[in-house]
Amino acid sequence: MRRLSQWCFAALLVGLLALYLPALYDKAFVMDMEKTHLLYSPTLKQFIWKEKVLNPPAEARAKAEDHHAEFVYRDESGHYYSREEFERNLPFIYYKNMELWGLLPLEIGGQTFDAAAIRENRRVLELKSNAIHGRAVDPGLYPLLESNPGQARLVFPEDRYRLTPDGLEFINADRNEVDEKLSRTFTAALEDAGFRFPARFVAGKHTILKAYDAGHFIVDATGAVFHLKRVNGEPRVFRTPIDPALGVRHIEVSESRNRDYYGLLLTEDDRIFLLREQGYALVKLPLKGYAPERMDFKVIVDPLYYTAVYSDDATIQGMAATLKNGVLHPVRQYTHTMSRAARSTAQIVRDAIFPFSLSLEREGRLVLKAHVGSRISLVGIGLALAVLAAMRWSRSGERFRRFGLVLVSGIFGLAASAMAFDE
Q: Which regions span the lipid bilayer (predicted)?
């Protein structure tokens, strides 16, 4: 029994060490490498990017204008730029600097753009991989704001609602009791519009820090998408023309003062669309290789182009398109392996020391994930075994079991063996 408890203690130590030691090592020795900022330049007619690199080439260092020489600015053709040159080639992104530099209005492709025109036609919509329905934390209680508050500022209502198998249930937060009348009113409004319970999910932006309130989108049991708003305290329900056969998986609502798009709509087969406010029309984004489970997504709208940028941990892809008659037509696509994909010396040493590591990651809930090292981890395991072989053991059976512990867990097993066993 004593041996069993020692082995259980050793296994617990291995887990804790694998969770915390690599994290401490990363904070001390591994440089945090942000993702590359990839954008489409309307002046160069190609993609251009900013990224952090460990060893900038001489050409990039020569372009460094300040002490941040580790940041390089480059385009598809391999040309390096200074920060100011980079911003001048992205006039719709850095239009405020362009205005300060006296470069507005500017002319591109025979069209003239001033600051007001650029500001009016700029838009950014994002969808993080960990924000997708089923992967993010669902509050379970949703605030349906008053869409016509009668004042400049939006305010939270005194109630929240939740989904039940056969309706919406409003709960007064001040009294902590169900509001039966309000529940019946909103449930009946949805049913009158053809809603079939139980609902699959609710999509909305649950904050008052936005330009206006667009209400909530609710997907019913058949996959139909309904738009629910609270106007002057009364329900307003619209059955959208979105085809239930699309298999709507997620709607990322993003209310903008431009009031052109409600947000992004993701389907079960990984197609992604812009959801227009006018008629709930969908604009398909023609992407190649988009994998929402592991990629963050962003679309940047400017006066001339729609630029979609999506990336996982190592690769970033871009697609620039023009909108004509409600259809996006790609004009350029590009894939770039980010500098953060290259293994630094500190990361190689990390692999040698730690044969695996554990991490707690949030995917709706905290998930314990294991990360296996590389072949070089065998070197670390060999060194740990050599240290263990030099230690004194009294019984040969124990020796082999501890040998096996270090063999599978390297430095974690060596440390656990030293702490868990008293001989």
A: 372-391, 403-421
Nearest partner of 285 among 245, 244, 249, 321, judged by Cα: 321
CB atoms within 10 A of CB 257: 10
CB 250 within 8 Å of CB 133: yes
Q: DSSP states of 198-255 as a string?
A: SP-EEE----S-SSS---EEEE-TTS-EEEEEEETTEEEEEE----GGG-EEEEEE--
Q: Give the CA radius of gyration of the chain.
A: 28
> Do the beta carbons of residue 171 and residue 178 sit within 8 Å?
yes
Cα(408)–Cα(414) distance, rounded to whole angstroms? 10
Q: What single-letter DSSP state applies at residue 45? A: T
Contact 242, 280 (CB under 8 A): yes
| Cβ partners under 8 Å of residue 9, min gap 6 | 416, 420
Check: CB of residue 254 under 8 Å from CB of residue 262. yes
| Integer Cα distance of 393 and 383 in angstroms | 18
CA-to-CA distance for 294 and 290, rounded, in angstroms?
A: 9
Residue tagged 């398109």 (tokens): 321
State the DSSP H helix or E strand holding residue 6, giving kind and residue range, or none if neither: helix 2-29
Reduce the DSSP state of residue 386 to 3 states and report it: helix
Under DSSP, is residue 218 helix (H, G, I), strand (E, B) or coil? Answer: strand
Closest CA to 301 of 279, 325, 283, 281: 283
Q: What is the largest CA-CA distance in the chain?
A: 86
pLDDT averaged over consecutive 10-residue blocks of the chain (423 residues)? 79 87 87 90 96 86 74 94 95 95 92 94 94 88 94 92 96 93 97 97 94 96 98 96 97 91 97 96 96 95 97 96 96 94 84 86 75 81 76 59 71 74 60
69: tokens are 């020489």
Q: What is the C-alpha to C-alpha distance for residues 320 and 304, in angstroms, rounded to an integer?
A: 10
- Give the residue among 266, 301, 254, 260 at the shortest CA–CA distance from 279: 260
* Cβ atoms 27, 37 nearer than 8 A: no
Retrieve residue 86's tokens.
């980079």
